[in-house]
Amino acid sequence: MRVVVIPVKSLSRAKSRLARELTPLERGALTLAMLEDVLDAALEVPGWETWVVSPEEAVLEIAARRGAFPVPETRPPLLAAIRQAERLALERGADALAVLPGDVSLVTTDALLAALRTLGPVVLARSGDGVGTSFLLRRPPRAIPARFGADSFRRHVELAAERGLPVSVIDRPELSFDLDAPDDILTLLETGRRGRTRDVCLEMDLAARLRAHA
User: Fold this and answer.
1) Residues 6+ positions from 154 with CB-CB distance below 8 Å
2) Are 169 and 24 in contact (CB under 8 A)?
3) How far apart are CA 49 and CA 43, in angstroms?
4) What number of other Cβ atoms are within 10 A of residue 80's Cβ?
5) Interatomic CA distance for residues 207 and 189, integer angstroms
6) Beta partners for 138?
7) pLDDT band at 180 (very low <50, low <70, confident <90, very high)
8) pTM of the model as a whole
């Protein structure tokens, strides 16, 4: 059994770096749109289960409706939610666990397949800022501890080295882009990539609003 787990924060806490530009309701709508786009990619991957872990009922309802396995988060923050998914995956006999954040909204099935088919006990994708981790695959699920947060890419590499495990790094822009800041919205719109995230950004006229705010 192999699992892709998508962690999603509560809508009230999501995308806090956009709080000056977007209302709480708008940030929630954007978060749900990104989740839908990530699910579009993950659910098409053959041979892997897709789980969504979140404290948010709306997020879990979307996951269940789309055919993913909803995992109610028992306690925050992100690392605790990932550890919860690890425990459940091990209980169910999983031999591989991938973590794909719910805001990697440009991800495609092809890019995700390439990452999941990459050999090695630890597979990483570096986030757009160059220091974070936007994808983590471990075989087995606790080959190294998950360390999402500041400077997480370096920490994951060091943890693998401490355990004598090789690290494979996949360089795909679809996996490195995570939408966190106002400029990321403009970048997403400039790509022309179709999806629910783009639709929501256009519906809220975010390009014009962000430029005016700047």
Assistant:
1) 131
2) no
3) 8
4) 13
5) 8
6) 97, 122
7) confident
8) 0.94
Closest CA to 127 of 87, 108, 100, 97: 100
Number of domains in the chain: 1
Burial class of 190 by CB neighbour count within 10 A (0 to 12, 13 to 18, 19+): exposed
Quick one: tokens of 22? 């977007």
Residue 91, sorted as left (phi over 0), alpha (psi -120 to 50) or beta, turns out to be alpha
Neighbours of 46 (CB within 10 A): 7
Q: What is the CATH number of the domain that holds 191?
A: 3.90.550.10
Mean pLDDT of the 65-87 span? 93
pLDDT for the residue 49: 98
Distance CA 89, CA 124 (A): 19
DSSP strand pairing (96-99 vs 133-138)? antiparallel
**SS3 state of residue 97:** strand
Q: Can you point out the beta strands (E) in the chain?
A: 2-7, 49-54, 69-72, 96-99, 122-126, 133-138, 167-169
Give mean pLDDT, residues 66-91: 94
Domain ranges, residue 160: 2-213
pLDDT digits (tens, 9 = 90+) for 125-155: 999 888 999 999 999 999 999 998 889 999 9
